[in-house]
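Risk register update: the risk of archive-format incompatibility is retired. Evidence:
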Amino acid sequence: MKKLFSLLTIVVLISVSNCSEIPENNDPVLGIWAKIESEGSNQEQTSDREEWIFNDAYLGRYQQYEGNNITFYTDFGWTVENGVYTIEYRGTDIETQRVMLVKSDNPETLAYENGSHFATRE
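Archived output:
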């Protein structure tokens, strides 16, 4: 009886695991977005860069660079509702950001709800 019960348990586990399906996320925001700010004269120019990497599990990585060095990084979660993306940096002091995808630009950009520039697709 124990063998029969074990066999049935294995069959049920296999059939349940094969039935579950991960939904595919093809959101247009997926990928790498960046904002670059340059300072100084041509000879001593430094650039600060912010980078957001959106993945299909509604998570991402935020990184700040000074020159070529990463100075800060953290993970973030994101959601989308009616074309507005909400980016939450859980566990940090960074405020939640709400942005929209602007498709008419080439390259595509993300803009705050008031229309100001947030980031550009890489």
